[in-house]
Write a structure and sequence with these properties.
- The chain has about 325 residues and is of the alpha/beta class.
- Helices cover about 40% and strands about 20% of the residues.
- Helix 5 packs parallel to helix 6.
- The two termini are about 40 Å apart.
- The structure holds uridine-diphosphate-N-acetylglucosamine (UD1).
């Protein structure tokens, strides 16, 4: 039977790619987004890509009345919760706003799900929950660590809330997907990441330098104990990541209880390797200079991906060159919006 998937935050970077994967398969999609960090025309672009238009509500997930109406008007089978503030630096400046927003939206969602007997939830978590102390590669049986910023703590706290909820209600099925570093964009070039203001993350900064919006990239530190001295991350193509969510829907349909699952490639790539790959596959220049380390950064961050393979039957397929090519195609289109 065809399932209806609710995507809070579904107009954003990762949510929109999951929506595209679901619409091209046999799922009905309901997106709720307050458009505080996304554009409404993403819905039109999803229709252009997939030939199907998702149901769309512009609403804040902490708005109980709006959520109640959405759950009454639609029979929801699975929720994939992407809604939340996500800028690490901003979370340090505005911790209360981050805790209020990210926790409120989740609690209101859980209460509304309970009121409507919706039992299946997939949550956008982050590798940041491993904290600073665990050794790489990260495995899901490691304890969550001390996060370095309020954004990370909201992810860690929400994981705890969801795990407690599963203990209290044995019919709940929750999967926390711990994303590593999502980059790239849809092959159509019509959806991708669109940061507000100066990008915090590496790939959008690279694409903005390449297109001429920013003068040069600052590489934060070249004295880490890594092969070339720059930070090593597990970059994962957002389309691979989106397909991991489709696999997770099958999983939550068949199991109960709480699980955390890494979504990464299991391979580390350094900052300079990414810069050089981007420049060579796209035939563009990416001027950079070496800058001091950024506080809170680790030398290495990459996943062990055995659990995703075992429980979801999923693994990432796209290469770093694919990520660079698709990010660049999207950046050029985004200029025209
Ligand atoms: C960051 C967050 C993480 C969040 C993730 C996705 C921190 C400490 N972690 O991960 O919690 O889940 O984004 O939003 O902020 N770099 C540069 N120059 C730049 C930007 C980045 O050299 O202008 C380097 C960083 O030092 C790092 C790598 O690129 O080594 C990746 O950085 P970034 O894209 O910000 O992701 P993370 O820090 O890994």
């Amino acid at each position: 039977m065809r399932q209806t998937i609710l995507l809070p935050g579904g107009a954003g970077f990762i949510g929109s790619h999951v929506a595209a994967e679901l619409l091209t398969r046999d799922y009905d999609v309901v997106i709720v987004d307050d458009l505080s960090n996304a554009r409404g025309d993403v819905i039109d672009r999803l229709e252009t890509i997939t030939g199907r238009r998702p149901v769309f509500y512009q609403a804040d997930m902490a708005d109980r009345a709006a959520l109640e109406r959405i759950f009454t008007e639609n029979t929801i089978d699975v929720v994939i919760h992407f809604a939340g503030f996500k800028a690490v630096g901003e979370s340090v400046q505005k911790p209360v706003a981050y805790y209020r927003n990210n926790l409120d939206t989740t609690l209101t969602l859980l209460e509304t799900m309970a009121a409507h007997s919706v039992k299946r939830l997939i949550f956008s978590s982050s590798a940041t929950v491993y904290g600073m102390e665990n050794p790489v590669p990260y495995t899901e049986d490691m304890p969550r660590g001390a996060c370095t910023n309020p954004y990370g703590w909201t992810k860690s706290m929400i994981e705890q809330i969801l795990s407690d909820a599963c203990v209290a209600d044995r019919s709940l099925s929750v999967v926390c997907l711990r994303y590593f570093n999502p980059v790239g964009a849809h092959e159509s070039g019509l959806i991708g990441e669109m940061p507000n203001g100066i990008p915090n993350n590496l790939m959008p900064y690279i694409t903005q330098v390449a297109v001429g919006i920013r003068k040069e990239l600052s590489v934060f530190g070249n004295d880490y104990p890594t092969p070339d001295g720059t930070g090593v991350r597990d970059f994962i193509h957002v389309v691979d990541l989106a397909r991991g969510h489709v696999a997770a829907i099958n999983y939550v349909n068949q199991h109960t209880g709480w699980e955390s699952i890494n979504l990464g490639t299991g391979r580390g790539t350094s900052v300079l390797e990414l810069v050089h790959t981007f420049a060579s596959v796209n035939g563009v220049e990416v001027p950079y200079r070496i800058a001091p380390r950024r506080s809170g950064d680790l030398a290495f961050c990459y996943a062990n991906v055995d659990k995703a393979q075992r429980l979801l039957g999923w693994c990432a397929e796209k290469t770093v060159a694919d990520m660079c090519r698709d990010s660049w195609r999207w950046q050029q289109y985004a200029e025209t919006l």
